[in-house]
Write a structure and sequence with these properties.
Rossmann fold, about 25% strand, 7 helices, globular, two-stranded antiparallel sheet, about 30% helix, about 260 residues, 11 strands
Length: about 260
């Protein structure tokens, strides 16, 4: 199978939050890493390649620093990479990102596209399903298992309350992979050396600009939550205190 894996570079989970001057996004001088859900999508794609043969291609959109995500994927076993390289890609919403990816791969013939369930920064969980709609491919979300069949693939989806759903799907298709379904591999020393010689195609913003259009979603402002502490004493007889407490929980805190 020829598999595409969509990946993203996100701020490290334990990195101190530093906002830009306009308060609309995180500054570039924080530490970045591979989006963890995408790492599981890559791992599943590599396992499918090891079982059935084929090719694994990784794609990302972002500034030059985002290339590190692709290099790590190549070191783990991906065959080649596509980098939509420009600072402007950082501010795209899920719909625009999906349109950029669709434009960048329009000349490719993939059997399967895998994404992480969601990103650790925005957390929209939309890019994969929007990409499927743009390509007019079937898609399934929260995938726990993939089995190749004569007619296509059979996937196991995680539902609520411990239930699962098994779905037979034709190819090509788009899947969003659940985190934790496999144990992630480490890049070997040989893999790191080989990654330097693997193909990495760069796509400029101008080549996909017409397909992207304008953002449908805009972040007006981000802020760091302020820690506050307030203690309030309720006085009176026990019955009156209980009545006041219930009233505050229902009308002020709104947990009842």
């Amino acid at each position: 199978m020829k598999i595409l894996v969509c990946m993203k570079q996100v701020p490290q989970k334990d990195a101190p939050l530093k906002l830009n001057e306009s308060g609309t996004w995180i500054r570039d001088d924080v530490s970045y890493e591979v989006n963890e859900p995408d790492a599981y999508a890559l791992e599943e794609a590599l396992r499918q390649k090891e079982k059935h043969g084929g090719e694994v291609v990784v794609i990302t959109a972002g500034p030059p620093r985002a290339q590190q995500v692709l290099r790590e994927a190549l070191a783990k076993g991906a065959d080649r990479a596509i980098h939509l390289e420009d600072n402007a890609f950082v501010g795209l919403d899920a719909f625009s990102t999906a349109r950029a990816f669709a434009a960048a791969i329009k000349d490719e013939q993939f059997d399967l596209i895998c994404t992480g369930l969601q990103s650790d920064d925005y957390g929209f969980a939309q890019t994969g399903v929007i990409l499927a709609e743009l390509l007019r491919w079937p898609h399934a979300t929260i995938i726990m298992q993939i089995e190749k069949t004569d007619a296509g693939i059979k996937v196991k989806r995680e539902l609520e309350a411990g239930y699962f759903q098994f779905v037979d799907m034709p190819l090509p298709a788009v899947l969003t992979i659940q985190s934790g379904i496999n144990k992630l591999r480490y890049a070997t020393l040989i893999g790191i050396k080989q990654a330097k010689n693997k193909p990495l195609r760069k796509v400029a913003l101008a080549k996909v600009q017409q397909a992207i259009g304008s953002n449908l979603q805009k972040i007006e402002r981000m802020y760091i939550p302020q820690k506050t502490k307030k203690t309030e004493y309720l006085e009176g007889p026990p019955a009156e205190i209980a009545k006041k407490l219930v009233d505050k929980l229902r009308n002020e805190i709104r947990v009842l």
